[in-house]
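Appendix B, record 7
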Amino acid sequence: KKPIMVFVNQMDKERANFENVIAELKERFSRKIVPVVVPIGAAENFEGVVDLLKKKVYRYDGDKVQEEDMPENFNDMRSEILEDIVEQDEELMMRYLDGEEIGYDELMRVLRESYKKGEIVPVLSGSALKGIGLDLLLDYLGDIGVSPEEAPSYKALLEDGTEIEVKFSEEEPFCAYIFKSVVDQFVGRITFAKVIAGVLRSGDTIVNVQKDVSEKLGHIYVPILKQQKEVESAGPGEIVVLLKLKEGAVGETLAHRDRRVKIVPPAFPEPMFSRSVHPKSKSDIDKISNGLSRLSDSDPTFVWEYDSETGETVVSGLGAMHLDVMIERLKKIFGVDVEVGKPKIAYRETITTTAVAEHKHKKQTGGHGQYGHVKIQLEPLPRGQGYEFVDKIVGGVIPRNFIPSVDKGIREAMKKGVLAGYPVTDVRVILFDGSYHEVDSSDISFQIAAIQAFKKGMEAAKPVILEPIMEVEVFVPEENAGDVMGEISSRRGRPLGMEPSGKGMVKVKAEVPLAEMLDFSSKLSSITSGRGYFTMRFQRYEIVPPNIQEKIIEERRREMQEQEK
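Structure tokens (predicted):
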């Protein structure tokens, strides 16, 4: 078991409830939950914290901390955590049951041992914004935390994919793990890394293993509060700050050039919440991709992509607040102001029945004219088959050199369907007849004829709109499973089943249209009080219900009218 310590933050905020958090932790973890630093009051009545082991109260006034003796009304709470601690040591427990007062040093010894074994989860509280309780958190980390020498080894991969373990040792070749990357508008990239093995010295040449980029280090710093102190070297377990690295995203490894080990990063949560972003100024179009790339380097749970089909830049994160923060950074650091909206859905259009169509393109001008005549049959294909062109021309009614022109014209027509202008898919087109003119026929003439014939055929073949269906897995507390299943059903989803996921959680499997998932993250957070999360991936396309199709067509028409203005 890995050691876990919990700090309950924002005790000064409205609706803060320390007791509820403790109850939830006890539900989620199969370990002893031991609150060692508890709050005095909450929200607007939050006054300070109590260290139950030291029997001291700490009240904060800015940078000043007032220490007092613990009042008697906390004695019962202290007795409860003492029992949790002493029962980890048989000798100590017997002395405690005999009525002996157990000293602070002995309690800390047992707490330290039990914490390192992962048997006890110490819980502290405070307010990071106001600096309340942070000093006690650092004290506990120093007093009972695991030192680098005691820490388990890191899993890593060699260049050939062989898995090895890297231990905290100065004798090993250098490697460090990047756990934080900050973009400063004045300094540029600031990289925070933890040295896992070896010694890093100023002037060393190191390699970013993932990016295969080498660079020679200038200065090495260690962080001390908000300041940075320059050092000549840093060893295993130390945190270093490196300025202006060429490459340095969170989760990447810096290593010695002769031993390019890649530390296996932890599993980061999947981004669940997406929004489209558009620069308010055309002059910012070039800057937005650079800014988003730098921000995604600093946060692996923030991703972005440009959707060439919809013409949108889509950003994804862990929630609305997360994206708000990242978009504000985009504006503050890179000077890019954006408009935020819901991402467009990559709908498709297809046909549901067979239809025959023809078009004769004939245009006479001075000199050579234009002539192309095609007859085609459209047939629906199974979902996911895309496009199939079948040439059934016999007798040379259309010369062989113009057959590819017909195919090319149909492909061009399929870029915009007749219902709402979405790409067309899952259609077989059979070219079975037509005619040509020895002088006026040309490549472009048959392309135009094919485009118009396809449009006529599609209109006659009962076209429909297809929408992407996602395979969704939702992880929620057992008590919220019913509400989540109901929410999925209300979003045109099909629940496929439910199975235990451990620690009081269940996994709900479902298929849901992507259009219904755009605001699911915030709703899930509301239902589960922030404890639920989900993953999704594309499954297939399905026909949209008629009432939804009408809305999509109307909305698309409005978009096109806006673009024409």
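Remarks on this record: DSSP finds twelve helices and 33 strands in the chain. The first helix runs from residue 18 to 28.
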